[in-house]
Amino acid sequence: MEEYEFFPHQEERRLLAEWKKEKDRKRREEIENELIHLYVRFGEYFKMSSNPDPKQAKMYLQKALKRKPSHSVANYRLAHYNEGRYAEAACHFHQALSGSMDEPLNDTQAMLSHMILVNCGIFLALNALKQMEKMETRPYDEETVERYRQAIFLHRIEDFHRALYRIITLESDEIVTEETYFSEQERFSLHEVMLCLSEQDGFVVRYAGELVKLEYQSFYALATILHSERPMTGEDVRETLFQSFFGRDVTDAAVRKMFERLRARIPFWDDIIETTRIGNKAARRRKQGVSYRIFCRASDIFPWE
Fold first, then answer.
1. What structural domains and CATH numbers belong to the chain?
2. Residue range 131-150, pLDDT digits in tens
3. Which pLDDT value is given to residue 174?
């Protein structure tokens, strides 16, 4: 082994110092790739050495993913440290299989990932069934549950792709087939905002022939305002979106800043959203005559639910 393998902190400090001083963007990217490679290598070293140190291994793999969340090998290695936490393991294995192609899994790693994903899925499904049995005696909305049960609760693997999609509009919230889901996206209505959430394209907003990709926080903020039947103040957004949905608190100033960025990011913002006043507070709402449709997976949850 090379000498620096036994002194990871020293090598890490050297690369971090070089990265901070470097002004050239291309060279900074090269240094960051060196750092990521170093973290993955140390993650493997502390797992497979004669004196394994799982804590150190996880720490370095997490550092690699902090800089590059799509890194296939780092996700693959970290997935093995989620013993008993099947949802986390499945998430990392899935990312490992669909992650960056600059350092992809080899065929053996890919096969093992698929095999373990099957086990994770079986465990999660069995656990979900047990929880459903326990909840049968609780007071839930039977009409809504039965509607979803008929549409998306699958008893055969052949039905897996039948009804995993959902379209939300002003008037309805429907579970639809895959065919309907994609065909409806080709149908555009005048003054309609289309919001699409998918693993492939991310968070996309379309209006009047224009398309904008957003990060998740901005996407859910826009969806929340479009869905609301009343104007929403910054405080409403902070409580509904951040505190209840994202599970964290932010200042009113941060909410204002988010809307400033949204308005700058979305060229048709003023065509679909208007600002009014509630007392001395600014409030935002969907413009009269504007409608919306949200395309998502049946399992996706939104702030108003």
1. 3-125 (1.25.40.10), 157-297 (1.10.10.10)
2. 888 888 888 888 777 776 66
3. 85
